[in-house]
Amino acid sequence: MNLQLHYGLLGSLEAALIALAVGFVVFMLWWQVCRRIGLSQGHAIGWACLAAVAIGAGVDIWKMFSLGMVRLESPLYARLALASIHDPDQLGTRVVLEVVGALVGVGLGWRAFSSQVTREGDTGGD
To answer: Which pairs with CB-CB distance under 8 Å and at least 24 residues apart come from 109-113?
Structure first.
C-alpha cells in the first residue's frame, strides 16, 4: 500500500488514524479467533496489540531502528538512508503517534465488542 501522506504533524496524524483503524480491525479478528478456541479477552487484547503495532507502525519503527545501525559517517550513506524515509523530520513523532493510534484502536475494539458480550449475557432480571 503506497499512500501519499502529508508532511509534518498532519501526516503523522493521518498515519495515526490509519493505525487506529488497523488496531480496531485486528482486534475484531483476534476477538473472533479467541472466542472460537476458548481463550480469554486478555489473550485477544495482547495479541491484537502486538499485531496492530507491528502492522500499523512496523515499517516506520524498522526505519528508525535501521537509522541507528547504518554507518552515517559518509554523507552519501546518510543521504541514501534518509531518502528512503517519507518524512525524516517527523519520523519519531510519527512512530509514537502510530503506536498510540494502534493501541487506542485495540482499546476501542475491546470497548465495542465487550459491550456486545455484556448485552448478550444480560438476562433482564434478578
So the answer is: 109/23, 109/24, 109/25, 109/26, 109/27, 109/28, 109/31, 109/48, 110/27, 110/31, 110/41, 110/44, 110/45, 112/24, 113/27, 113/28, 113/31
3-state helix, strand, coil in the chain (%, to 5): 80, 0, 20
| Residue with grid cell 531502528, as numbered in its chain | 65
pLDDT of amino acid 79 = 83
- ∠ CA 32-52-3, rounded to 5°: 120
Neighbouring C-beta atoms of residue 112, cutoff 10 Å: 13
pLDDT at 123: 52
Residue for grid cell 475494539: 109
- Find the mean pLDDT for residues 63-87: 82
* Cell reading at 108: 476501542
